[in-house]
Amino acid sequence: MYNNLKDPDSKSVSGNFLPNTETNNTQAPNDESKSFHFTTTIDDTTSPKYEDFTIHILCLNGTAKFQLRDRVFSISSQTCVVLMNNTTLKWLFTSSDFKMEALFVANEYLEASTPGTNYNFMGMLSLMEHPVIEMDRQKFNLCIAVIEAIRSRVKMRDHLFYSGVLRRAVETLMLDIYSIHSKLYPTLGTGRNQGVKIFREFILLIEQGNYRTNREVKWYAKKMNISPKYLSEVSQDVSGHSASFWINRFTIGEISRLLHNPTLSINTISDMLHFTTHSYFSHYVRDRLGMTPKDYRQKMLGVRK
Fold this sequence. Notes:
This protein is α+β, with helices and mostly antiparallel strands and 305 residues long.
């Protein structure tokens, strides 16, 4: 089912980019470590504690099988698995020599860090359909190196541009994975069933920019001639997230990009995205990014108070 890109002369990979300890989540003033978790423990991948995290699993040695909803996947050395959440993840088998290391990134953090590429959200849809990525040694080691860079950046809290360089490191990982994945699965979102096709149509509607003026599920459901309840059920079943989650994810991504432009006032951005009031815009951002638009802009631009 998957293209075999492994180096035939290498059956295992020696990787040691992660310590056998968790990231310290005690936050300092300039600390985003709560948005990350590094582990070598397979039980963490199914923990409810991380159900709102995107999980990147690197298989360093051995083999394993896991189930997502009604589908079963196999992995082996030099394989990467990307999961948008772990709510339906179930491990069926791991060999005695199985070894993995994983990076968890909070979805809330990714909402503001998603690279603006054409592969962006359709790439996410394709990853949902094909979460297993087999790599050659060079690509696999590249992913290890980038994750090591992220782990190092998380700790560099005295860096003048801490938030900016950390987000760039996360963007690099996402772009590398999208690049590798798009070559393995060039046709995005073709779908296995009606649910996937509906979800793909929904994502395409959002991607066309409709989120700038319409952020209610019922608007998209009406355009698709289905009920809001059914759209939400399909979205949850296919992606593990509600329909409103995806609308907000596009919106927050756009807000983040606009706030990076210091020539645009916060009120102008609010108007560009057709929020009913500037105070509601501020509340919307604070509710999803944990800070006001002004504070978020200062943080991203490295402005010290």
